[in-house]
Amino acid sequence: MKTIKKTLILCLSIALVLFLNACEKDDPFKDEYEPNNSLTEAIELTLETQINASISKGDHDFYSFTVDNQEIIENALIELGNFSDNLQLVCSIYDDLGNIRVTYEGGEGTGYAIKWPTTGGTYYLEISDKSGDEEGDYTIKVTDLNDNDDNEPNDTFSQSKVISSIPATITGTIVADADANNTLGDFEFFTILVPGNVTINATATPDYPESDLTLNMEIFDENKNSIESETGGEGDVVSIAISNDSQYDAQFYVKLGGLLGSSDNGDYSITFDD
């Protein structure tokens, strides 16, 4: 009797395993990247390479990508597309410490693209259906845009670009929102030596017609104390006079930031003249 029981239990166990394996094989939305259900199981994406993926009901797919921008702020373009009609995918972005930074979502059956500012390192993506009740197919691709200008890095006082002669005009690009509410954005710093009893005008201009770039500028003395600031409206020119009222040459810093409008164009020029 005991032998029959053991045999019966063994047969049932084998049957259960075969049934579960069959269910897994029959699931059309269990893709080749599973298991990738956590940060530690994240599938590493090759930059500029699109992959075809699927998501099951209640599933969460994790991916990672790595960029080497040498501490220069540049955007990674995350493209999610070719959704099954019923999917409404949510994408959460994590930093290299596993902290969630932001979450995006598109419409039902609608792909979308995200520009994410990076300074180098590894980032993680979590993809899931908003309701958790739908399943289907999608594609994902990450591209390092390398979209900043040749003046970089100039995001801090210590990195500021030195203006060696007057007049001077510098062209550049702000690739990520930078103002008092976006302190980690793509600020542009410049250092200028102003002779005694001389005034230098710093004028920043959005660099294309009908721009929706909103520029902001702040002037600091050689001790990094703020002297004056100015913020324009969409497409406005911003200008501040830097006056050295002493008889000696003095060093000043110019900090330029901006908010990108719907056009996402951050091109500008800044002119220094007396």
Strand-helix topology:
Elements: H1 2-26, E1 43-44, E2 51-55, E3 60-67, E4 74-81, E5 89-94, E6 100-105, E7 112-118, E8 121-129, E9 136-144, E10 161-163, E11 168-173, E12 188-194, E13 198-206, E14 214-220, E15 226-231, E16 238-244, E17 250-259, E18 267-273
Parallel strand pairs: 1-3, 10-12
Antiparallel strand pairs: 2-9, 3-8, 4-7, 4-9, 5-6, 5-8, 11-18, 12-17, 13-16, 13-18, 14-15, 14-17
CATH class of the largest domain: Mainly Beta
CATH fold group of the largest domain:
Jelly Rolls
Helical residue percent band:
under 10%
Q: Report the radius of gyration as a whole number of Å.
A: 27 Å
Provide an overview of this structure:
This protein has 274 residues and is mainly beta. It folds into two domains: 117 residues, Jelly Rolls (Sandwich); 113 residues, Jelly Rolls. The protein is built from one helix and 18 strands. It has a five-stranded mixed sheet, with no helix packed on it.
Give a quick summary of the entry:
The chain has 274 residues and is mainly beta.
